[in-house]
Amino acid sequence: MPDRTDQLTDQPRHSAVDDAQGIAFGVTMAALGMHILTHMGFVTGQTTGLAVLIAHLTGLPFPAVYFTVTLPFLGLAWRRMGARFALKTLVTTAALSGLVAVLPSWVELGRIEPTVAAILIGLLFGIAALAAIRHGGSFGGLSVLWIELQDRTGFPAGHAQLLSDVVIFGLAALIMPLDTLAYSFLGAAVFSLFLAVNHRRDRYVAV
Amino acid sequence: MTDPGKHSLIEDAQGIAYGATMAAFGITILTHLGLVTGQTAGLAVLIAYATGWGFGPVFFAVNLPFYLLGYLRMGLRFTVKTFAAVALLSALSVWMPGQLSFATLNPWLGAVLFGFLSGSALLALFRHGASLGGIGILALMLQDRLGWRAGWVQLGFDAGLFALAFLVVPPETVAISFAGALVVNLVIAVNHRRDRYIAA
């Protein structure tokens, strides 16, 4: 038995298997969420939302667009967070894009009530992000840019994130019916609320 | 920020709502594919398939006798939260299949999705001081009274359920169901750690 001081200072650490299952879980839940999102023709915030818009405007397949959109931010992630983080992000986004690409051949969704779809998307994205964050993974993309912006110019990253979502939803308003936009907003709100309440490093203490 | 060591009422409520919703999504997939599973939900699924009754009302009824045990063994807070989770899951699992349908769904993928969804649902419920049913409590009670190891009792119960399942569904369905139940249990075994998620 370690003595009392050792017990108190011993930080619980995830093993490689812990992290692998956490990220596999996150990728699967995010892929299911994206499958429902694209099936319903909804939009969302940040990198996924940007990819939805580009895919919509160009007619290119969403998974390929999503993967491509995350690539430019990998260099930034490498500089800021190190090679290990950047590599993990690359593996995660590649696995996510791959799964979203093959998912339609295993599961074809039928009719889904839009409110139910929006809530499920919010919960699935929320739990996926929570698992990824807790296991040191990341779905990559825009957020690292906002952190960089904050460091360079002092503009708060949270504000930049919110502002960019306003722009994405604003652009979506030009090409989407208003009710689709409202359901999309509900999904994004559930996602944000879920993370706001549950992402607590003081409660989930393992790293 | 609320107290890191203690969930507020709203935090518990959203955790229970999350757990019941994801569990209902999982049950919608499970029953759509005609798969079975373990524990109290597994018993309810088998009864539902054998009688043609819906999963929701059967699950709600099967849980009723266990609330007294829950109250004696785990206290009032746990019992009230568990009742809320079971009632919400029962209602949602009646309602959800009408809201969401699958054109096609590969059963192996469905089993894995069921495993992740219900594993994550149970994890959220445990972390917020609730549960989804009586067999686990009964197993803890038997360990206290008779010294039977709770883990073995639960394993024995699931073995019995899966043996009975052979009478109700085809053998291939039992195999796919087993994969789903394995994923649920792996998610709980790896992630349910009070030393990592410290809030109560």
Strand content of chain B: under 5%
| Outline type of chain A | globular
Strand content of chain A: under 5%
Mind summarizing the main beta sheet of chain B?
none
Tell me the span between the first and last alpha carbons of chain B: 15 Å
Summarize the main sheet of chain A.
none
The protein's oligomeric status is heterodimer
- Gross morphology of chain B is globular
Give the low-pLDDT segments of chain A: 1-10
What does the average pLDDT of chain A come to?
A: 90
Radius of gyration of chain B: 16 Å
Topology, number of strands of chain B: 1
Mean pLDDT of chain B: 94
Low-pLDDT runs of chain B: none
What proportion of the residues of chain A is helical, as a percent range? over 70%
Biggest interface reads: A-B, 33 and 35 residues
- Going by helix content, strand content and strand pairing, the class of chain B is mainly alpha
Number of helices of chain A: 9
End-to-end CA span of chain A: 22 Å
Which sequence of SSEs, written as H and E, runs from N to C of chain B? HHHHHEHHHH
Describe this structure in words.
Chain A has 207 residues and is mainly alpha-helical. Chain A is built from nine helices and one strand; from the N terminus they run H-H-H-H-H-E-H-H-H-H. The longest helix of chain A is centred in the N-terminal third of the chain and has 25 residues, at 16-40. The radius of gyration of chain A is 18 Å and the shape is globular. Mean pLDDT of chain A is 90; it is low at 1-10. Chain B is mostly helical and 200 residues long. Helix content of chain B is 75%, strand content 3%. Chain B contains nine helices and one strand, in the order αααααβαααα. Chain B has helices at 9-33, 39-51, 55-63, 66-74, 76-95, 107-127, 134-146, 150-168, 171-191, and one strand spanning 100-105. In chain B, helix 1 (9-33) runs antiparallel to helix 6 (107-127), helix 2 (39-51) packs parallel to helix 8 and helix 3 (55-63) runs antiparallel to helix 5 (76-95). The model of chain B has no long low-confidence stretch (mean pLDDT 94). At the A-B interface, helix 2, strand 1, helix 6 and helix 9 of A face helix 1, strand 1, helix 6 and helix 9 of B. Strand 1 of chain A pairs antiparallel with strand 1 of chain B, so a sheet runs across the interface.
